Amino acid sequence: MVNGPPHFTESTVLPRDSGKNCKVYTFSKDGTLFAWGNGEKVNIISVTNESLLHSFDLPKAVCLEFSPRSTVLATWQPYTTSKDGAAGVSNLQLYDVKTGTCLKSFIQKKMQNWCPSWSEDEAICARNVNNEVHFFENNNFNTIVNKLHLQKISDFVLSPGPQPYKVAVYVPGSKGAPSFVRLYQYPNFDGPHAALANKSFFKADKVTMLWNKKASAVLVIASTDVDKTGASYYGEQTLHYIAANGESAAVQLPKSGPIYDVVWSSNSAEFCAVYGFMPAKATIFNLKCDPVFDFGTGPRNAAYYSPHGHILVLAGFGNLRGQMEVWDVKNYKLISKPVAPDSTYFAWCPDGEHILTATCAPRLRVNNGYKVWHYSGSVLHRCDVPSEAELWQVSWQPFPDGVFPAKAVTHRAPPRGEPEAAVAYRPPALRNKPPTSSRLHEEEPPQNMKPQPGNDKPLSKTALKNQRKHEAKRAAKQEARSDRSVDLAPAPPQSPARGTVSPPTSGDPEVDKKIKNLRKKLKAIEQLKEQAAAGKQLEKNQLEKIQKEKGLLRELGDLELGV
């Protein structure tokens, strides 16, 4: 554990655990508790008191998560069955953080969506079990208080924030029927009009549902595993907007191609989408799904709003080079363009000023390490992991909202930073010439950097009609003048074509013919001599031709002297 900026020294809260199997940890939502697994036990410490609270014998735990109010720790181990085919043991445990007792154990076979979902006040908790959503109240996991049953519920997401609680559920389509997402208000699940909103759509094998912070709307990214048109290797994606008041719409994206990322602003009034074939486009939309600002195109596949929503980072990680664009979204001004190559992780610091990028295993097992940046583009701290070690996880300590007030955006870098990136090599012959673009695709600039068209007012229909008449008359007059000048001009004397030089002639066609044949024979002899010099074995008749060269030269000279 490392202290944050500006010190970056090793913290005394957590003694270094150097076990080879330390691959998972988690902070509580308020940052006061810290839990980690080292391949033998799962430990919980208090960050404020620097004391060990509990230790659980869970050597195979690979996932840890605290409930929103830090009262429950959820742990997950891979599900296993015995050799005789008997049912496996429970692998999802819920522990009371205060007492250390196990509140409940469940069987959770899949790692995907393994963790139960709590409301922010922990009044309700929900799990998806056999295509049903089971609801518990007040962390009493022995009694299922409510069930939301729809045919083949594939996924659900609880809304953030206080009451009333809302839940979005996704049901995939089957037998020609469309898929749909419905919004409900807990616990009103029964009746044909119980749903707050409904949005159905085709072309969906899976969805990602994103609530905004105020729980007033959900964005749904629907994607297919295969694009039947063959346009994309990554399938086909569509973006849908569903409001809790019943409104819904398909978000029209100006550029075709995959949808890489969609993220809500913390103000819940706008969202940013990164989409389209590379170079990808990024656009901010409002709640009417109308574009507010277009960032143009670039090498990007992710977007990250700062905790206060005043800065937006557009980045290209994964198979891209790690280029980032840091934008002041209040004034739509570009702040900086840092580059973090090979990054697999990005996170904003809760203070809204610092950024964390990291290269972690198992995504990449070489060049592991992390960097702490200021949003203006300078690197404040860097840690490179030794080549024989791997970095598995890195994150900021969370803090409750409001601890760090929003600060004005600055457009100048702090004094510390990395040297500028090396310029590409240019040969000496090209160094004094203007650089040429070697890009495969020309990037489209942001909308406030595009050249502005002229301010000329458009012509009316009558003015356009008169303009066409005048242009037609002018063209007819010019054509008549050109015809008249051609008729009156004297014909120029014909001259031989340029670039052709006629050979001297003797005036006697027979002599000219002999000269031409002699030159042709001499040219063939020259070719044979070149072949012989190159080491080619010549035939007997070819050697005889070469021996006749002197006689042919003498004969040609006599004929040309006669010329």
Automatic annotation (TrEMBL):
Residues 473-486 have a biased composition (Basic and acidic residues). The keyword Glycoprotein does not apply. It comes from the Eukaryota. SUPFAM superfamilies: WD40 repeat-like. GO terms for biological process: regulation of translation. Functions in the early steps of protein synthesis of a small number of specific mRNAs. Acts by directing the binding of methionyl-tRNAi to 40S ribosomal subunits. In contrast to the eIF-2 complex, it binds methionyl-tRNAi to 40S subunits in a codon-dependent manner, whereas the eIF-2 complex binds methionyl-tRNAi to 40S subunits in a GTP-dependent manner. This is Eukaryotic translation initiation factor 2A. It comes from Molossus molossus. The lineage of its organism: Eukaryota, Metazoa, Chordata, Craniata, Vertebrata.
